[in-house]
Design a protein that fits this description.
The structure holds 2 protein chains of 2 kinds.
Chain A: H1 27-42, H2 48-62, H3 65-69, E1 70-72, H4 73-77, H5 82-89, H6 99-113, H7 120-129, H8 132-155, E2 165-167
Parallel strand pairs in A: 1-2
Helix pairs in contact in A: 1-8, 2-5, 2-6, 2-8, 6-7, 6-8
Chain B: H1 10-15, H2 18-32, H3 39-52, H4 56-60, H5 68-73, H6 85-99, H7 106-141
Classes of the chains: A mainly alpha, B mainly alpha.
């Protein structure tokens, strides 16, 4: 059941999807919000395709229709295919995913479902496949996307379904 | 003991990737400076999230002073008399947001807006996002938030 929008966005159209959203009515967080969003894409060691896979897996957990409909152009340029996206969105990770991709899914699931309950086997596998910097990048991007996705859901105003749409990182 | 870089607390782990943790921390700090929501109200919401996540370390932290009575009665806030109506509306919203952000009702959102406005609701949501994120990271990494100021109880 769609929820009506609980907050009106600011008047005007800057062309920036974050500034033009309800987030735009809180100027005190707008610049830090934009800076963090850009940093998550630009400033970490994980490639854009892996960032996008983690973001989309997270969006599945939060139930954000818009987050699930969006594809970032940088991830597509990095080689992300729609076939891979559908594998990530399945209940269980597809066997055709690489070990790294399966671990990305496991990490995002653990963050959402039981952050305190990660077992030794998953920790060990993550350490084997990812560098320290990559693990920190993955952690922070999931924390970021989870918070922003929850915010989008709680603000309401989303339809039950949206078509796939390709966008650029708002800056 | 954290499993990414042994021996480091949460703040030290964040320091290892400053290009991203820097902007994260700036957003975190910025929510306490917002005019839309009293920092004490935000702190109560952060503390309630720590309780819901069973993160004793995050509950022990103090970002903004709140009274000892409010800390002591936070778990039982619906029956306690030491919270304002604004704080109650935000705490109820926080609890549902933590469990299922899609389950927040219009009445719960309206109750928040009645006290702090539409921009206050957005500010609260942004704050809950970074509070919840940092608590979850501490639990996921098994890294206590040592290194920041502790609540002296």
């Amino acid at each position: 059941m769609p929820v009506s929008a609980r907050v009106q966005p600011p008047a005007g159209n800057s062309g920036n999807v974050i500034r033009d959203s309800a987030l735009g009515i809180v100027p005190g967080t707008l610049e830090p919000y934009l800076a963090l969003n850009a940093a998550v894409w630009d400033a970490g060691p994980l490639p854009a395709a892996e960032v996008e896979l983690a973001r989309l897996r997270n969006a599945r957990h939060t139930g954000c229709v818009m987050c699930q409909a969006v594809r970032y152009d940088v991830a597509i340029s990095d080689g992300l295919t729609e076939e891979k996206v559908q594998m990530i969105r399945a209940n269980e990770p597809d066997a055709e995913l690489s070990p790294r991709e399966r671990l990305l899914v496991a990490f995002v699931d653990q963050y959402n479902l039981d952050p305190a309950g990660m077992d030794d086997a998953l920790r060990s596998a993550l350490r084997d496949q990812f560098s320290e910097a990559e693990l920190l990048h993955l952690s922070l991007l999931v924390a970021w996307f989870n918070g922003s996705s929850r915010c989008a859901v709680a603000l309401g105003g989303m339809p039950e379904a949206m078509p796939r749409m390709e966008i650029s990182i708002p800056r | 003991m954290n499993w990414i870089v042994e021996g480091l607390d949460r703040e030290q782990l964040l320091d290892r990737l400053p290009a991203i943790s820097g902007p994260f921390r700036e957003l975190y700090r910025s929510v306490y400076r917002l005019p839309q929501v009293a920092p004490e109200t935000l702190e109560l919401c952060r503390l309630r999230l720590a309780q819901l996540h069973r993160s004793d370390a995050d509950f022990a932290l103090q970002e903004v002073p709140v009274s000892a009575e409010q800390r002591a009665q936070l778990q039982d806030w619906p029956r306690a008399s030491v919270f304002t109506d604004e704080q109650r509306a935000c705490l109820e919203f926080t609890e549902v947001h933590a469990m299922d952000c899609g389950a927040i009702t219009d009445a719960q959102a309206d109750a928040v807006k009645a006290h702090i406005g539409e921009d206050g609701l957005v500010a609260l949501l942004q704050a809950l996002g970074v509070f919840d994120g940092l608590i979850r990271l501490g639990l996921l990494w098994q890294a206590a938030p040592v290194g920041v100021h502790q609540h002296a109880s």
